[in-house]
Design goal:
The chain has 3 helices and 3 strands, in the order αββαβα. By secondary structure, it is an alpha+beta fold. The chain has a single domain, classed as GMP Synthetase, Chain A, domain 3 (2-Layer Sandwich). It has a 3-stranded mixed sheet, with helices on one face. It is globular.
Length: about 130
């Protein structure tokens, strides 16, 4: 089962939803809590969370409650490339009901500033 967190209109991210064996209420709860957990992860060099920066491309919640996150980094040479995926994995794994968490770092499509939400733009004074 694939479920993608709710996406702000100004933070485009992939949507790939398939039917799930999980009850919709549980899926909604897990999705909300995963998004909240992702919003606690900050790139150490940027004062905005990775979700609002648009670094999360996909969240897949399987019927067995295993969660896979596809994320990117602001650049392939990101100084936080080693620590950010682990921080994301730990944040997602902390959500009640998540059996395991896996993070894939992807480079396609490349990240650019258009993926940031208005909230991130405001925090970074990009208006």
């Amino acid at each position: 089962m694939t479920d993608t967190p709710p996406v702000a209109a100004d933070a485009p991210q992939a949507v790939d939803a398939k039917p799930s064996a999980l009850p919709q209420e549980e899926l909604d709860r897990m999705t909300d809590e995963i998004v909240a957990a992702l919003k606690t992860v900050y790139d150490p060099e940027i004062p905005a969370d990775i979700y609002e920066l648009g670094l999360i491309y996909r969240v897949d919640i399987e019927d067995d409650r295993a969660v896979t996150v596809d994320m990117t980094l602001t650049t392939p040479n990101c100084p936080s490339a080693q620590e950010l995926p682990k921080m994301v994995e730990d944040a997602v794994a902390s959500v009640p009901g998540v059996r395991e968490a896996k993070v894939n770092v992807v480079w396609d499509p490349p990240w650019d500033q258009s993926r940031m939400s208005d909230e991130a733009r405001l925090v970074l004074n990009m208006w």
